[in-house]
Amino acid sequence: MTYDAIIIGGGACGLMCAVQAGMRGRRTLVLERNDRPGAKILISGGGRCNYTNLYTSAANFISANPSFAQHALTQWTVADTIRFFEQNGISGKEKTLGQLFPISNKAKDVVDVFVKLIQEKHQQIRLNSKVISVVKMANGHFDVSYEYEGRIQRTSADSVVMACGGLPVAKLGASDFAMRTARQFGLDVVPTAPALVPLTITGKDASWFSALSGNSVYCRVYNERASFEENILFTHWGLSGPAILQLSSYWRPGESIVIDLLPNQAIDELIKRERQAGGARMVGQLLGDFYSRRLVESLGKFLPVATKIASLSKADARRIDDTIHRFTVTPAGDKGYDKAEVMRGGVATHELVPQTLEAKRVAGLYFGGEGVDVTGWLGGYNFQWAWASGYAIAQHI
Fold first, then answer.
1. 279 in the Ramachandran plot: left (φ > 0), alpha (ψ -120 to 50) or beta?
2. What's the CA angle centered on 389, arms 386 and 391, to 5 degrees?
3. Is residue 313 predicted with pLDDT exceeding 80?
4. Is the pLDDT of residue 181 over 90?
5. Of the candidates 261, 204, 241, the residue with the CA atom closest to the CA atom of residue 335
6. Which helix (H) or strand (E) holds 194?
7. What is the per-residue DSSP string for 80-143?
């Protein structure tokens, strides 16, 4: 059987691409190495699938070319995503910061939409199929070899869509196949790294963080590249939580990050008010207005928590201000691809036509989703990029 396009990867980008191509009357074959489509969709958002973000713009993405994502995002907007899912029985509910989840809270419902539409549009999807090679033939067609049920199969098409994701979560079949294929065809690849990933603390400070495991605090976390204000979570091995995951995409090994433990108030003003009221309370009691007892006790390593506020010296007050508003940490590393939400880097955007995501130097070869050097923030942005890039590609295969 011949196809207009072979789509490698049955995740968010690949499924959307197959459905949208089918709506244009095109015939596609999706090759997915897992035993079910949408494996990463199913575990996203704790199994609830934060499928877009109401505030998506190109500013929410990291790339060597910050404006690149805008070309696809304007072709398939957040409104298009919402309409698409509503037309297929999924209404969204907004949680924090524009994050949209299915009302059912079931990621499976999102995958089921694509399974149904792929069947309706007469597209083919073959599971348990590990692609081995992509070769461009002298006649301009692509020959794709893949392993299926222990045997090597071959098929061909006019176009190939690399929608096979990146390196995070190996147990779901993650691989560098998209990047390897790009290099095979002479395309540049931006070096990759885990993104939206917890950070680790080792050495003399490790036990301090470990003792706070389970404590969550609303903070502003920042470095010279970015700043995010959300919860952080202390863990046995370091730091996690939304603010840390966000900043991790902008962090590089060896660098420090700064944590403002009280971002919406000034601790020096609070101390001044306490003094005006007599200053009878201890520093620890003031901190207890904002933090758990365990965190206050742990801050006693740095601060005079057992000192009456009226008795604080100017040096003590400065130390409290510095510690609360400029708590500086130098992570040892990150938890790696298996704990990362996404991958930073990928196929270089200067190799792709922005409007179509076709390789400029290899006609008929397309790259979409996570394998491209476009990495979204936490909160549904990466799904919006996947839908948009899948749609944009589908208009041209």
1. left
2. 105
3. yes
4. yes
5. 241
6. strand 189-195
7. HHHHHHHHTT--EEE-GGGEEEETT--HHHHHHHHHHHHHHTT-EEESSEEEEEEEE-TTS-EE
Q: Domain 199-334: give its CATH code.
A: 2.40.30.10
3-state helix, strand, coil in the chain (%, to 5): 35, 25, 35
Tokens representing 265 are 């108030």
Amino acid found at 138: A
Cα angle vertex 63, ends 253, 329, to 5°?
25
- Ordered DSSP codes for 3-54: EEEEEE--SHHHHHHHHHHHHTT--EEEE-SSSSS-HHHHHGGGGT---EET
Domain limits, the chain:
3-193+343-394, 199-334
Local structure of 274: helix, strand or coil:
helix
β-pairing, 99-102 vs 142-148, is: unpaired
Query: CATH number of 3-193+343-394: 3.10.180.10, 3.50.50.60, 3.40.50.2000, 1.10.150.130?
Result: 3.50.50.60
212-215: list long-range contacts, CB under 8 Å, 24+ apart. Answer: 212/294, 212/295, 212/298, 215/292, 215/294, 215/295
Mean pLDDT estimate for the chain: 96
Q: What is the pLDDT of residues 75-132, one digit of tens each?
A: 999 999 999 999 999 999 999 899 999 999 999 999 999 999 999 999 999 999 999 9
* Residue tagged 């095979």 (tokens): 184
200 confidence band (pLDDT: 50, 70, 90): very high
Mean pLDDT of 314-340: 96
Q: Which pairing describes strands 199-200 and 238-240: parallel, antiparallel, or unpaired? A: antiparallel
* CA distance readout (Å), 65 to 186, 259, 318: 20, 29, 42
